[in-house]
Amino acid sequence: MAEKIILDCDPGHDDAIALLLAHGDPGIELLAVTTVAGNQTLPKVTRNALSVATLAGITGVPFAAGADRPLLRAAAVAADIHGDTGLDGPELPEPAFDVVDTHAVDLIIDTVLAHEPGTVTLVPTGALTNIALAARRAPEIVERVRRVVLMGGAVHGGNLTPAAEFNIAIDPEAAEIVFGAGWEVVMVGLDLTHQALATPEVRRAIRAVGTGPARFVDELLEFFEHSYRAAQGFDAPPVHDPCAVAHVIDPTVVRTVPAPIVVETAGRYTAGMTVTDLRGPAPQGCRTHAALELDHGRFWDLVTGALARIGEPSLTASERPA
C-alpha cells in the first residue's frame, strides 16, 4: 500500500527534489502539496512548486499557498543558498495551473479529515508554520494523522546559527507546537541530511537517466553545489528534504531512534535549537524520534528511480488540476 502524504514545502532546490521523489515513487500517494514562506517569500516558493509540478507532469493533486510569515517573528529567507528566486540555476517552465482557492492550513485539515484515521502522513520540509496552525485550528487532526516526518532540526548543532537549523530557527514557536502536539514526530535533521551528499557519482547517475526532469535536477545540484561551497564549505551539497520522503517510502533507508525532543524558544543564542535527549533509553511511549543514519546508496537509488519513472511527461490542458 502506498503511503498517503501531504507535502508541505518551500521550494527550494531540495524541496523540488523531494516533490519529484514523492511524485515518482510508487510507495507514495501524494494527496496535496502546500507551501509556506521559508527559503524564499511565499509567492516565489509557491510559483516554484507549480513550475516543478508542471515540469514533472503532476496532475490531480491540489496545490495551496499557506502562511507568508512565521507565527511571531519577522520573516527570513535563505537567498545565500537558494538564490533570489528560491530555485536559481535551471530555467523554470511557466506554471500550467494555479493553486486552489483554499488556504494551505484548511487544505491540510480537510485532507486529513477526509481520510481514515492513521492513514495520512504529514511531510513538512520547510518552516512548521502551516502544520502548527492546522494543529491549533483543528486539534482533532492530531489523533488522526499517522505521523509527522519533518525535515528540520538537529541533534548536534545548526546551520542558521551554531545551535539551530534553518527550518526550525525561522519559526521556533511553530516548531514547539508541532513537536509537543502529541502525535508521532520523526525529526530528519542535519545529523542525517548532511550524509545525503550529491557527489559527482550521484550526479552522473542522475544525468544517465537522460530525461528533462533528470537534467533539471542536475542543474539544481550544479547551483546548489556552488552555493553550499561558498556559504558552508561543502565540496558536495547535502540534499536535505528528500530524506524525509525517503523515510516514508522505506524507513530502513533512514535509521531513527526514539528520543525526547523539545524546541528552545526563549534562548538568546539558542532559539530554534531542537534539544534531543540521547543520554539513555527513551521513556516508554516516547513519540518523538531522531534520524541518525542514512543508507546513501539506497537513498539516491530511490531518487534516480523516481526520475526514471517520471520519464518525459507532458501536461495538457485537459490534465491540469481543477
From TrEMBL:
Task: Provide the taxonomic classification.
Answer: Bacteria, Bacillati, Actinomycetota, Actinomycetes, Pseudonocardiales
Q: What Pfam families does the database record attribute to this sequence?
A: IU_nuc_hydro (PF01156)
Q: Which organism is it from?
A: Pseudonocardia ammonioxydans
* CC per GO annotation: cytosol
Any idea what this protein is called?
Purine nucleosidase
Question: InterPro entries this protein is in?
Answer: I/U_nuclsd_hydro_CS (IPR015910), Inosine/uridine_hydrolase_dom (IPR001910), IUNH (IPR023186), Ribo_hydro-like (IPR036452)
Q: Determine the domain of life of the protein's source.
A: Bacteria
Q: Which Gene3D superfamilies match?
A: Ribonucleoside hydrolase-like
User: Does the keyword field hold Ribosomal protein?
Assistant: no
One GO BP on record is: purine nucleoside catabolic process
Which keywords does this chain's UniProt record carry? Glycosidase, Hydrolase
> Annotated Gene Ontology MF terms?
purine nucleosidase activity; uridine nucleosidase activity
Q: Which residues form the Inosine/uridine-preferring nucleoside hydrolase domain?
A: 5-301
Keyword Hydrolase (UniProt): yes
